[in-house]
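Figure caption, in words: inputs first, then the predicted bound structure.
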Amino acid sequence: MFSNLSDKLEKALHILKGHGKITEVNVADTLKEVRRALLDADVNFKIAKDFTTSVKEKAMGQNVLTSLQPGQLMVKLVKDELTELMGGEEVGINLSGNPSVILMSGLQGSGKTTFSGKLANFLKTKKGKKPLLVACDIYRPAAINQLHVVGDQIGVEVYSEPENKNAVDIAQNAIKYAKSNGFNVVIVDTAGRLAIDEQMMNEIANVHKAIQPQETLFVVDAMTGQDAVNTAKAFNDRLNFDGVILTKLDGDTRGGAAITIKSVVNKPIKFIGTGEKMEAIDVFYPSRMADRILG
Ligand code: GDP
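Bound structure (guanosine-5'-diphosphate present):
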C-alpha cells in the first residue's frame, strides 16, 4: 500500500536525518521533496502546498533547528500533519436506530456490494448485530444475484424484490420486513453507474429521503486517485453523506485519495477495504495510516 509514496517520503526525510547540523535550507529542501512526493501520490497541488507550509510553520515554531533530534521532530511533524489531514480521530458508524439503516452509495465497480457484505459480516461477528442486506439495484439482475451470493457466504439474509422496479418501494418494504423479523441493522445496496448521471443521483436521493438512514456511506475505489475525490464531491453535494469507504487499498494505490478526501468533502473515512474476501475490512485509523505511509 502506498509503497511509492512511502519510499519518497523516506528519502525526503532521510536528507534531514543524515545531517548533524540542520539549516533552514535543509528544512526547505526536505519540505520541497515532501511536497513532490505528495504530488506524485496524486495529492492536489493546493493541499500539498498547504501541507508543507503548515509543517514548516510548526517546525519553525518548535525551533526545529536547535532541537536535539531535528530529524525525529520533522518526522513527527509530518506524521501529525498527515494524521490531521486524514481526519485526526477515527469515527465509528451510527448504529442508534432500531433498526439502524445504512445506505450504500457509489459508482458501479467501486466495491459497494462487496463492502455491504463485509460490513454485514463485521457487524454480525464483531458487534453481535443481526443485519439484513437489501438488494436495491433495479437495473442489473446480476447485482441482485451477487448480493445473494455474498449473503450466503456470510450467513446473512438478503431481501430482494426482483420484479419490483421501484427502489424506494423496495427499501421501505425491506425496513418493514426488518422490523417485523427482528433485524437490528439494514444495509441497503443501491445501483451504481460507471459515471455520475442524473438519473442515478435522483434515484439514490429519493431513496435517501424516503428511508432517512442513520448512515449514508459513500464507497470509492482508492485506485482512482483524484477521480475518487471528485466523485466523492459530487455524491456529497447531493447526499450529504456521513462517511467514506475506501476500497482496494490492497492494490498499490498512490495514496492521493486516502490523504485528501477528508479535507475536500469534510467527511471522515470510516472503513477501508483491503481485499476481495469478506474479512478484508478495517476500521480507518488516521494515525495508523500515517504510520504506515511513513514506514
Ligand atoms: P459494485 O459494483 O460497486 O457493487 O462493486 P463490487 O462489489 O461488485 O466490486 C467490484 C470488483 O472489485 C469485484 O471484483 C470485487 O471483488 C472487487 N473488490 C471490491 N472491494 C475490493 C477490495 O477492497 N480489494 C480488491 N482487491 N478488490 C475489491
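Residues 24-40 form the longest helix (17 residues).
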